[in-house]
Every structure is written in C-alpha cells, then in structure tokens.
Amino acid sequence: MRDEFDTTTFELTLPRKVGRPPKFGHAMSQADRAARYRRSRAKRATAAIGKERDAPDTALVDAIRWALSNGDPQAASRAIAELARRYPVGAEPKFELLPPEQE
Asked: Would you say residue 64 has pLDDT above 90?
C-alpha cells in the first residue's frame, strides 16, 4: 500500500502463498479433513455391498466391518468370499521370498 499522492514509488507485489489452493475457499481443519475422509470411506463401504466384484480391497474390508457391526452376515460373507477369490489361500506368492538370515 502506498500514498495516493506518491507518484515515484512502485506498487509492491507480494509473493503468492506456497502450496495448493484450498478446496472449499478456506483451509480445512484437521478434524474436518478427518471427518470428510471417514465419510468417504463409509460411503465406499456401503456402495461395495452388492457390488463386491467391482469394489477395491479397502472398501471390501470396510464393508466386512460395517456388515458385522450392523448384523448383516450375508453381506459380510459375500465380501469375504470376494477377497478369498482374489487372494486364494495357499497360492504361490507373486513376489520372491527372501532366504532366512544366517547368523
């Protein structure tokens, strides 16, 4: 800011703030950010029920937790069955196991 009658001084340009601009016009508090994250996880978990084949693994695990806490064993068993289909027990691992360390 400068005097309106001063014709010799240039207007200062301040550097912009560093970082990503806020999403909703103002910075979110950590509590708001965490609540938003929990809401989106719950939304994905409930959306995964009935659409287990298309759901990501994290949504299936959350769907199992939701179904067991709400007394819906059929939804839990469908999510568990889908995870078992994706990751069969006793299957060869997709990575190389390291040999045990020698002492």
From this structure: yes
